[in-house]
Amino acid sequence: MTSQSRPDLPGTYVFDGPTSRRGHNMNKLFMSLTDAGARTEFLADETAYCARFRLSDEQTTAILQRDWQAMLDLGGSIFYIYKLAMMDGRSMQYLGGVFTGMSEDDFKAAMLAGGRTDV
Amino acid sequence: MSEVIWGLATSHVPSIGAAMDRGMIDQPVWAPLFEGYRPAREWLARNTPDVAILVYNDHANGVDLDIVPTFAIGTAETYRVADEGFGRRAVPDVVGDPDLSFHLLENLVDEGFDLTVFQELDVDHGFTVPLSVWTPEPGDAWPCPVIPIMVNVIRYPQPTAARCYALGQALGRAIASYQGAGTVGILGTGGMSHQLAGARAGFINPTFDHMFLDAIENDPEKLASLSREELIRQAGSEGIELIMWLVMRGALHKQVRKVHSAYHVPASNTAAGLALFDNRVAQPA
Questions:
Q1: Does a structural domain hold residue B239?
Q2: I need a labelling partner for A49 at 20 to 30 A (CA). Which of B2, B96, B154, B285 fits?
Q3: Which helix (H) or strand (E) holds B210?
Q4: What is the CATH number of the domain that holds B6?
Q5: In the predicted model, is pLDDT for residue A1 greater than 50?
Q6: Same domain, B107 and B68
Q7: Where does the record place the Extradiol ring-cleavage dioxygenase class III enzyme subunit B domain (chain B) (predicted)?
Q8: Which residue among B191, B225, B247 closes a domain?
Q9: Of all helices (H) and strands (E), which one includes residue B38?
Q10: Domain limits at B48?
Q11: How many CB atoms lie within 10 A of CB A31?
Q12: Measured between beta carbons, which residues in chain B are less than 8 angstroms from residue A11?
């Protein structure tokens, strides 16, 4: 997540031009999942669906394995990644737990306690 | 001429809308948030404008990454409630005001704000949740026509805070020169501090949020001077949405009267803030 064009803040993704270009096809795949018919096609053969969107091998693997962190690193925007998470019945707080090495319950508890004010 | 009578700043967290739609507002997790909204809602119900302008951002529902307008305005007769992947929220579609939209567009372009134009637009939670914060039980229709102004806050580089404030000032002038509507409400939405992704996910900064709540009333120029980097550092990668509050504030007078403000952590992953200002205040000579 290095870039010459925008701030590099620890633990923080900034969806800049290079990231957007790297993740464009994958984000388009995520966007397509807002359509119920597309979700059916995706679930029937996820590998073929990824190929249709010309994803890289790394991006395809990240999606097949639901490696949410890798999706971020490979150019996914959190708002687009969330389309796939919603399809799987996962919450934003589940994802927050994944990104911070916590269980969903622990992440929720941290938010209810006032959020992560020390990071 | 038309007059901006109030400005409302509010978070747009989707789970706030979900809590209302699913009858969860009395649950212990949610009750304090909605209790904080109550005085603002009561005041707003007594002060319905002829038309409202809602400054918001889309979250991959009305637009995608093929085209990302920095600033845009809707000119449609109606705006459908978007299906974000789990069905449409059971709230009314939004009635627009094309005549005022075109007036604002022309005046803002003349002032150097080259807005993208949406003749069709589905509006997502970024739009409908603030409407629900304003009007919890709209029935068949929202209280008045509403015009969307969309701001890119997702893709870097977002517009600067200073540019958002200047847009709001131009918007205020454009409203004042309009003969059609009488009274106008303006909403600035999003924030407060939050971050959804990365090792800093769950970040909340109450110190910054309280500074912002105070300064949006008393010293918006200070907020307009914040850099993009500073906003992301202090409010989180999604907390930069707070620049949309500055569009609202720019359209109000230098001096406003705070009707009510509220702050609650958390609304899911976000610090939820609200600030309501009466703009009908005598200004110093």
A1: no
A2: B154
A3: helix B206-218
A4: 3.40.830.10
A5: no
A6: yes
A7: 9-271
A8: B191
A9: helix B31-45
A10: 1-25+42-191
A11: 21
A12: 198-200
User: Looking at the partner chain, which of B85, B205, B206 has a beta carbon nearest the beta carbon of A83?
Assistant: B85
Reference A23, options A55, A50, A1; nearest CA is A55
Assess whether B71 and B145 both reside in one domain.
yes
DSSP A74: T
Taking CB atoms and an 8 Å cutoff, what residues of chain B touch A114? 204, 206, 265-266
Looking at the structure, tell me whether residues B19 and B69 fall in a common domain. yes
Chosen for mutation from B88, B204, B270 (greatest number of chain A CBs closer than 10 Å) is B204
CATH of A17-77 given 3.40.91.80, 3.40.50.720, 1.10.700.10, 3.40.50.150: 1.10.700.10
Rounded Cα distance between A19 and B209, Å, is 29
Q: Which two tokens stand for residue B212?
A: 């912002």
B117 shares a domain with B138: yes
How far is Cα A46 from Cα A75, in angstroms, rounded to an integer?
19
**In chain A, where are the structural domains located?**
17-77, 89-119
Question: Which ipTM did the prediction report?
Answer: 0.94
Confidence of residue B168 (pLDDT cuts 50, 70, 90): very high
Q: Considering only CA atoms, which of B247, B218, B261, B221 is closest in space to residue B57?
A: B247
Look at residue B248 and tell me if it is in a domain.
Answer: no
DSSP state of B241: G
DSSP assignment of B136-174:
S--TTS-SS-EEEEEE--SSSSPPPHHHHHHHHHHHHHH
- Residues belonging to chain B with any Cβ–Cβ distance to chain A shorter than 8 Å: 29, 59-61, 64-66, 83-86, 154-157, 193-206, 228-229, 232-233, 236-237, 265-266, 268-269, 271
* Contact assignment for B65 to A20 by CB distance below 8 Å: yes
Q: Does the predicted model carry a pTM greater than 0.90? A: yes
Looking at the fold, whether B184 and B216 belong to one and the same domain comes out as: no
Give the side-chain half-sphere CA count within 13 A for B42: 7
Contacting residues of B for A79, CB less than 8 Å apart: 59-60, 154
